[in-house]
Amino acid sequence: MELPLDYMGFIYYSKSARFVGDDFDADILKSIPSDIRKVGVFVNESVEKILLLAEKYRLDVIQLHGDETPNVCKTIKDSGLEVFKAFQLNESFQFEQLESYHKKCDYFLFDTKSESYGGSGKKFNWQILEKYKGETAFFLSGGIGIDDVEAVKEFQHPKLIGVDVNSGFEESPAVKKVGLVKEFVKSVREKKMSDNKYAVNDRGYYGQFGGAYIPELMRANVDELRENYLKILSSEQFQKDYARLLDNYVGRPTPLTKVENLSKRFGTNIYLKREDLNHTGAHKINNTIGQILLAKHLGKKRIIAETGAGQHGVATATVCALFGLECVVHMGALDVERQAPNVARMQMLGATVIPATSGNQTLKDATNEAIRDWIANPHSFYLIGSVVGPHPYPDMVSRLQSIISEEIKEQLVKEQDKQNPDCVIACVGGGSNAAGAFYHFLDEKEVNLVAVEASGMGVDSGETAATITIGDVGFIHGSKTLLMQDDDGQIIEPYSISAGLDYPGVGPLHAHLAESGRAQFLSVTDQEALDAAMVLAKTEGIIPALESAHALAALEKMKFTKDDVVVLNLSGRGDKDMETYMNNL
């Protein structure tokens, strides 16, 4: 129970060597941490008895290992329980039989064919799973042991959601070799972040947040992307092209710079992850390079984007110029005025910039117009700039931005002889730079993750963009998340001096991190951000973007020890904000 497991199984099948027994004490399960889901394993048991035992033992999941019909699965699922259906595979297995179970189960579990209903302790040929083209995600099972770590890490399938380990780690039936389990879990999780509890599930949810709440006219485009993005992103050709462009076009890896003067000021060890040194001046290019390659794979010729501060618009216009594709960027009319240099850059790169004149004429309204454009022009590709929107966009953008935390881990080994910092700080509007900076640390509980919102004139001023602090659960731009809204559910217009942070919602990943307590959320006012920008400029010779200045301002609100290692993601440079700085300083 002390290990970072997602599920623990209890077998209620009397013929199993691991049968819990008829007098199993229900109080035993009360000691299991709430973040580990309790699975009851049954074989050809009546629905009535399954539901009775599920209530008695407060089970979260029912795993069915017998000949249960789709209707049995549906009945149990409709009762509010999660359902795993196990199937035994060999070379002659007919995957077509699984179609009738689709949507009646949450996950499948693929085990080795044996003469009995219990596990055989033997592996099957995993290559059989190349034939599986279904939509239901699955767990891989069947005799997996400590010697299979590398094979599990290398095995690729877009619907693989987890690994079931049992007999391969036992001294005797039901008695685990805990040390081996610990070693296996640690080794596999280092490679596959997508297996942890902060990752999106196959339906596009982080906890209760996410999903795809979209008009029917968008469904075909979103489904096309959902069905193909993981396959394309994991393909050898994509990986080769993406790595090449990040290296010799974007200019990665970006430096991890220890800022000595700032470190002395706060009495600790502060490093800046220098995303401001990317081509185009911000982290946004990591995402646009990846999505433009994906668009090319899908045969798209016209690219739509939304932008607030203009950095995503510039990054989109840049990659469209590189690949010779038409580029249309929607930008709030107010942002067009206050980010004039970026508008000029987009136009020089060949993009058409269309001002959004509805609402308060900022990022929310630009996103509305981009969605309308996509509905009117379904042959286009919508290149979303943050971890917002309908699934699969939040997950896709997070994966493409994860290069940030991947590099941090590698660079810290050289700097501090360890992979993990004590703290990672990043600003959050929609949240893509924070998602990238947090990604490979989400399952490392010792790393404090700090997300910084823009509170504008103050959280309670009515002029704020502090979504997590004052927001409620709602729906925006195709996703269930936290957003600022009134008692009638109408969106409250956000405000921030930073064009990239005045969004009334937040990406569903961040909503989940806030609700689960995995990340700490702070808020910073306009003035605090301006002051922090001046400190960095005058002590380190670096002028940050106003968005990044919010993250810097959080340092004043935190306590550190002299041995702490703090990494702050400097998401962009301040060239675009010089007029705002001049008008306010």
Structural summary, described in words:
It holds the Pfam family PALP. The beta subunit is responsible for the synthesis of L-tryptophan from indole and L-serine. Residues 251-572 form the Tryptophan synthase beta chain-like PALP domain. The modification N6-(pyridoxal phosphate)lysine is found at residue 284. This protein has 585 residues and is α/β, with parallel strands linked by helices. The chain is 36% helix and 19% strand. The chain is built from 20 helices and 23 strands. Strands 1-2-3-4-5-6-7 form a seven-stranded parallel β-sheet, covered by helices on one side. Helix 6 (236-250) runs antiparallel to helix 8 (284-297) and helix 14 (403-416) crosses helix 15. The chain is globular and about 75 Å long.
Brief write-up:
By secondary structure, the chain is α/β, with parallel strands linked by helices. The chain has 20 helices and 23 strands. The protein has a 7-stranded parallel β-sheet with strand order 1-2-3-4-5-6-7, with helices on one face. Strands 12-13-23-18-19-22 form a 6-stranded mixed β-sheet, with helices on both faces.
Main features:
585 residues; alpha/beta; 20 helices
Order of strands across the widest beta sheet?
1-2-3-4-5-6-7
Global mean pLDDT: 92
The biggest beta sheet, please? 7 strands, parallel
Shape: globular
Low-confidence stretches: none
The number of distinct helices, counting runs of at least 4 residues, comes to 20
Separation, N- and C-terminal Cα atoms: 54 Å
Rg from alpha-carbon coordinates: 25 Å
Modified residues (N6-(pyridoxal phosphate)lysine): 284
Catalytic activity: (1S,2R)-1-C-(indol-3-yl)glycerol 3-phosphate + L-serine = D-glyceraldehyde 3-phosphate + L-tryptophan + H2O; N-(5-phospho-beta-D-ribosyl)anthranilate = 1-(2-carboxyphenylamino)-1-deoxy-D-ribulose 5-phosphate
Protein name: Multifunctional fusion protein
EC number: 5.3.1.24, 4.2.1.20
